[in-house]
Design a protein that fits this description.
Length: 153
């Protein structure tokens, strides 16, 4: 009886795992680096953009192993928090701007937007300038090493 129970339990676990693998996930950030290992300083294999569809391979803590639908031969790791189970609609049929996407990502409602929209200063060159900055993987690794910092998991 116990052997039968264990057998049924194991087959259920295997079925759930197999069902999860191959599921789709969607990029919910502007740009997402697909990494060789579960580390932010690991080599970047590819980059996915907002709304891109990725195939789920495996989940491990805060990281998810994926493969882009557009490049199935690439297999790498991304931060699980940058993925959505829901398909993200992008393209010309949707009229939105970066400000709206940012507010939606923060959970602000349309009512909140309308209430405070007149007081917003959305033309901020200093912020725009900072957002254009980027750091390569090599620069990040050198910064961590030079500062004797511990790499985040």
């Amino acid at each position: 009886m116990i052997k039968r129970f264990v057998s049924i339990l194991l087959s259920g676990i295997i079925t759930v795992s197999a069902f999860a693998a191959g599921a789709s996930r969607y990029v919910s950030v502007q740009s997402l680096a697909i990494k060789e290992k579960t580390s932010n300083t690991s080599k970047t294999l590819a980059t996915a953009s907002y709304g891109d569809e990725l195939t789920l391979i495996k989940e491990s803590g805060k990281w998810t192993q994926v493969s882009p639908k557009s490049a199935p031969s690439v297999k790498g790791w991304v931060s699980s928090s940058a993925l959505s189970k829901r398909k993200i609609v992008t393209g010309k049929s949707v009229k939105t701007d970066a400000n709206e996407i940012s507010l939606a990502g923060k959970g602000f409602s349309e009512g909140f937007e309308n209430r405070d929209a007149s007081s917003w200063d959305t033309d901020n060159p200093a912020v725009d300038s900072i957002e254009k900055n980027s750091v390569s993987d090599e620069e990040m690794r050198a910064f961590i090493k030079e500062g004797k910092l511990k790499e985040a998991e």
